[in-house]
Design goal:
The protein is 48% helix and 0% strand. It has four helices and no strands. Helix 2 packs across helix 3.
């Protein structure tokens, strides 16, 4: 059996703690389905521009924001947008694959 590791594996916590995930489902206004490549591109962009490391789940948040802004360019016009970027656990192998 082949198991593919994803950059955002840590987001699989819903499998271990279903209650918070179900609360999130009922509280969330919008969902974005993003590719692994979109997450990698967002991580590269952040690392190259901010000179800080981040893990896949933070890259996914950036990718979602970029995708939403691309879909509707006026959506964030004149607004302040805040993303909390936390987590810098990234292996050397994964980092090499990004850069």
């Amino acid at each position: 059996m082949l198991i593919q590791r994803l950059l955002t594996d840590a987001l699989g916590a819903w499998k271990r703690m279903p209650s918070p995930f179900h609360w999130l489902l009922s509280s969330c206004d919008e969902w974005h389905l993003l590719s692994e490549e979109a997450t990698k591109a967002a991580m590269r962009l952040y690392i190259e521009n901010d000179n800080h490391l981040l893990e896949g789940s933070a890259g996914l948040a950036i990718a979602a924001l970029l995708e939403a802004a691309e879909r509707d360019p006026s959506r964030f016009e004149g607004k302040t947008v805040v993303l909390v970027i936390c987590g810098s656990r990234i292996s050397a192998k994964t980092l090499k694959s990004l850069l």
